[in-house]
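Deliverable D5.2: sample structural annotation.
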Amino acid sequence: MMLFRTNWQEAPSRNIFNLLCAVCCVLASSAAGAESLRLDLGRYAGRTEREGWHQVALKDQGGAAGKKILLYLDNPASGEAGQTAIFAASSLGAGPGTAPLSLAVTGKGGMYGTPGLAQKKYARVAEDVPGMALGGTAVAEWPASAARDGIFLKDGSLTWTFSNLKPGAYKLEIFAGRSAEGAGRMTIAVDGVPGLSVSGSCAAGTEENERGLYFNRTVTVSPDSRSLAFTVKAEGGFGSLNGVVLTPVPGPAGGTGRSLDIRGTEKVPVLLEVSAAGKITPAVEGEEYELRINLPPYESVTWFAAEAGRWPSGCNRVLPWSAASLERALNLRNPAAGGSPDPHGMLALFRLENGHYLVMLPLCGSGSVSWLEAEGNALKVKSGTLGTEAMEDKKEPLLCFALSRNLYEAMRVAWGKAASHPRLKGHSLWRCAKDARYPEPFRYLGWCSWEQYRRNINADLLLRASRAIDASPLPVRWLLVDAGFQNTSRQFQLRSFLPDGKKFPQGWGPLLEQRDSSRPGKIRWMGLWHCFYGDKGGIDVNNDLGTDSRFIRKGGTYFPGKSMKDTQEFYMDFMNSVRGRDGKGFDFVKVDYQTEYLKRVKGTGNPARQSVWCSRSLNRAVDSSGLLGMINCMAQGTLHIFNTGTSPVTRCSIDYSLNNLDASRSHLFQSYTNTLLLGQTVWPDHDMFHSSDPVCGDVMALSKALSGAPVYLSDKPEDFQPRRIWPLVNREGKILRPLAPAVALPESCFIHPLESASLYGAIAPLHNKCAAVAYYNLNTEPTTRSGRLLPSVYEWAPSMMQGPGAASSWSVPAEGLAAYDWRNRKGVKLPDGGIPLSLPSLRNGVMQDIFYLLAPIEKGWAVLGNPDKYLSPACIEEGIIRTDGKMTFTLKDSASVLIYREGGRPVVEGAAVRSLPGSEDFYLVEFPGELPARRVTVLKGKP
């Protein structure tokens, strides 16, 4: 007999008890895969079964004090529950000659309902456990009956200790649930390991916790302790514990299958195909190909993934997670993301011990997608269709990796090698190849309805907003209608390409008539938001699209992707509905929810291929319809970044959120670090922002300027803040843009800014070899962080430049750099030892940054442009002419210009020249008025 021995004590309530128990388990070896110990404590016994899993449950035999609780184990063949079992030695145990594997549970809590086996055989749930979420984030509904099963705790805790385990790495999964009433907050933590914890509300029916808490971590059992303990705690009410699964994780040298050895000294990028060198063995139909990767010694890693439970739908939530090892990276936390990273990744960067950077980039093809998968410090690359069908083409690209002492060069050559593969070539052009066709509206300031109004828009509101924008003195040149206009079912399933007749009784005509290209500084263009596959719930079977035969049907919902031809026809109709058959409709489109498509078509034949069809058909339709361009949103998945076509813009971050510090901190480092990946083929969109944001408005405005992507406001027009808007644009609303998007500095690519003791930095190249560099204190603790602005940072400015003039780095000029502190309006010649930097996390409750402009000094001169603009060097045309006695340049759209001159006040005809306060050798030149272009000659003055 296997007994769960319990010493019961009386308590004030019959639902509170003291539990002390020990269970001895001797398990059978599994014939297929790693053996797992599974404790099913309640309804969540419904996890999908897998061969070789030992399913164990506790069952209350009557519930009276003093009664025994038997440990049940079901028959792997029939699923019938049995009270006794005899097994051979287990691979989870410590080994021959040691005590058997045991489990002890201690603590105080409460027991409700009937925990354990309520049915003879476990039923499958709607989604497998990876669909669950970490930290209480909603993913799918739990059955209502779940609140009546499991071990329920009330203001108590239980500590579960496994003893006599075999040393090594284990995946520990813990399922905790909800309470129907009197819900509290639960915390799950591995004892003695800081950071290995998750917490969340247990309130039934809340949006944040529809599915419950899911803890999924790799933990290490040392040879000394041979034990593993975790504590589950409920505070402020009830919470349930529903299941525990413990699975050994094979080490890099163990396990089965083929492996790839990376030496860390490879000279050229390497691209592997699914059939490459016979190293990859296909799994059964509909499953994945797999290759284990043996890494060279490394100092740190950055793992790019959404938070746990999102994969394969990364939305706009692919975040960089940096640590000293993969295992530590997987245990980081990000409050804005709602949890820790998923073990499925779409990029990994390694800083090797030999000084090189290693980039590992999983790829997609015409009918497959690849991803990295980490368990502890073990790494694999996998590839599959994500559906029921096997790959048809065994020449699909799998993985590209590259090494360099320059991080940006390693990323660039890896991408270049990948994009040259026949399955990908031409489907995602380099960013520089798209610049000649960069949509004209995106060069100007815009406005979007979403952050202010969400789905609560209608014709009257948008007409009032457009008129108020035009009445404003600020030059907002385009308006984007975001979600909320669609004709949909209650489940957000699209029924028509026409807008909701109740909200827009006259259609789009009255709004589109507000456009006026004849008035400078007023709305000239309008754009329309749409979902990649209809609306976020799909397409209703009761629709007026007239194309039902073109769709995949799942229940009462249609989705595009049935065939390439059907998909092309659908998107052509879709985009024509935006532009209008007469070409007088909207001017551009924003397309959202691209990566959610995979989740929606789960269970179909080949979701990867279907997604590729949709992306390529959409790109072609946008180009053919007459639309000026497209903004990709929620398109950070591998299948989409390799299929942007001619589209030049993709969102690089989670949504901007008004007055939200956690979101803003995450937004900044996600945007700048993700640029390393996304910025190869698109300008990375940092999203809209409120210029009136009192907490984050200053830092948000600057980050939009540094992005080089569209800049668009989201405030009510009457709330616009000119002091944050005018530094972004000229008088006609044209954005002052960098030569390439700002990207995280190399050292910042390998820190977790929310916990780091270092400042986080980003840099962008500007005209005439100037640079913009920004630093942030993103630590969530109320601390001050320090650093130094060194001349060597200038070398990284051109890291994201492409095409003519591109360089892997810039040399610091022999005469040095003029540095302008934009926030404090002071200049200094940058010393060889740098400038000390210090920044609190907040100043008077407001988020801050440090922002410097750097200009090369040649022949004693430097010019920094109009200091009223964030990217002031963009006001100077390329081609400054310098001699010892004078400097000549063209100043655009400005009445003032900041210059540096050693050895005396310079002279400019027709302008006043005054010293910049508190700044040696910096001078502000001021003209009587602003001109579109002015040729300026500056003469050397007397000392």
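Annotation notes: The radius of gyration is 30 Å. Residues 676 and 743 are 6 Å apart (CA to CA).
The annotation will be released with the project's public dataset once the embargo ends.
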